[in-house]
Amino acid sequence: MKINNLFSVEGKVALVTGGSRGIGLMIARGFVENGVKTYISSRKAEACDQAVKELSQYGECIALPADMSSMDEIERVAKEISAKEQKLDILVNNAGANWGAPFAEFPENGWDKVMELNVKSPFFLTQKLLPLLQAAASNADPARVINVGSINGINTPRVDTFSYPASKAAIHHLTKILAAHLTPENITVNAIAPGPFETKMMAGTLAARRQEILDNVPLGRTGEDEDMAGIALYLSSRAGAYVSGTVIPVDGGSLVNT
After folding, report:
1. How distant, in Å, are the alpha carbons of 129, 150, 202 from that of 222?
2. Known catalytic residue: 164?
3. Which listed residue (39, 164, 234, 242) is catalytic?
4. Backbone phi, then psi, for 17, in 5-degree steps?
5. Segment 124-182, tens digit of pLDDT
6. Terminus of the chain with fewer CB atoms < 10 Å: N or C?
7. What does the pLDDT read at residue 215?
8. What average pLDDT score do residues 14-33 get?
């Protein structure tokens, strides 16, 4: 049982939503560098193309720009991949949004935008791509759905982003529900719950409260690209084939301090 075989993902096909930056880009690069034909989706076509240009030096990466908050766009993405691929081994539902405002001023559109992109879209994209996931699935090597949640969906953050932690708690529970439905079809469903990483979404918070945040991380640092790529590769490889319905914190141990 060689480690190269145990963690190999070579030859698989993946879609990573929100793959042009941040957590999605970290995961996409890990896939591309290890032989996965990787489609990345991003709302902005220019950002998608730039990420593909960067990643294509390591392997096969294809841009598929789309706004995952739109059902029409979700259906278009599913149709385009179905026209190009006979199967989809890995789906990473990473596209997400955040919104901050004081409680008394928090707007309905901020609530709806976050809930739609962070919870509704992963459900319906998985639904529309189910035939391709089923085509890739076997008992020995299941198809994989990986949802990106957050430790803020586990702990109780004291910041004015009310819909965001609620949406991440929802995607964690949805992960378990989908696992109950899809694992018998040889499709595993798991969630990653990142802690502090150097991403655009986290940049403002880190700029304002970096030391406070790091003081709460037992490892004393923010997450690095390899930390995120590693957990995604584990869940997508033979090493993670018997894991389904889990939420895995990748947070440097910060949850033990909450």
Report:
1. 33, 14, 11
2. yes
3. 164
4. -80, 150
5. 999 999 999 999 999 999 999 999 999 999 999 888 999 999 999 999 999 999 999 99
6. N
7. 86
8. 97
pLDDT band (50, 70, 90) for residue 205: confident
pTM for this model (two decimals)? 0.96
From 2.40.37.20, 3.40.50.720, 3.30.1330.10, 1.10.486.10, which CATH number describes the 3-257 domain?
A: 3.40.50.720
Please answer whether residues 179 and 146 qualify as being in contact, where contact means their C-beta atoms are separated by less than 8 angstroms. no
Going from N- to C-terminal start, the domains of the chain cover 3-257
